[in-house]
Amino acid sequence: LLCCRLVLLGKQWYQRRVRGMPKDALTCLRxxxxxxxxxxxxxxxxxxxxxxxxxxxxxxGNLKREGKHSKAAYLLDRxxxxxxxxxxxxxxxxxxxxxxxxxxVRGRGASELNSRKTE
Length: 119
What we know:
Layout: H1 2-18, H2 22-31, H3 35-44, H4 49-65, H5 69-79, H6 83-92, H7 96-105, H8 110-118
């Protein structure tokens, strides 16, 4: 039943996109966890920064639940400007080298990460 519903939502996304209803299409993509298509469509729609962050945050939560921690972290870092939560997602997914790399690139030292962990 769930699979049929997801297929139906996917078809609705395509139909709404073709008919010029991008907001409805974006909703369908978010509900079916199609993160790449949703981000692409949101970018084409030129959403304001806060709305784009909201889309990315919702998708990141869905991806994390699916065990796709790396993709979720990318969305949080890139679109939500939230490297701390992105590092947390990577650590929860046992992606420690990626977490270390992101923390280094974003200027987060090991002592800062440890202090967040104890909070």
